[in-house]
Fold this sequence. Notes:
There is one protein chain. This protein is an all-alpha fold. The chain has five helices and no strands. The model has no long low-confidence stretch (mean pLDDT 83).
Amino acid sequence: MPEESRPAAWLRGFRLSGFALSSLLLIVAALVVLAPNLKTLVEQRQQIAQLQAQVAHERQSVKDLTGQVDRWKDPAYVEAQARTQLYYVMPGDVSYFVVGAPTTPTTSDKLPVSDKIQSADVDWLHSLLQSTFTAGLTTATPQQLDTVAGPTQK
């Protein structure tokens, strides 16, 4: 007869007594009874965590709204909002409203403003000095100066 392996020998030598069987049955019964309650506990803990996160978000929202309310208590802020959003003016002020104005800002050459860095083709220092000397030393009228060509470019 072949020799038995160790696990087989252990299983054959294992005897299930009445106490061991009743303890095993009690453990299984406890798991069956407690498992649904544990599942409910875990679900409720998850809900509590979600609600706490929502409360924190709402508290931040309340803080932001309180800040907005405080800003509206400032008369300068109210005046600025009335001027920009409602186009109100103070008595004696002159207001101009341009209808059909382009929505994108443009330069004096009617070119759109770029957000990229560009190099200038004009020597600004030379133009500044030329403009200063021209304004200080000329005898020409402003109308005559307007007809003169723009700054020299190098």
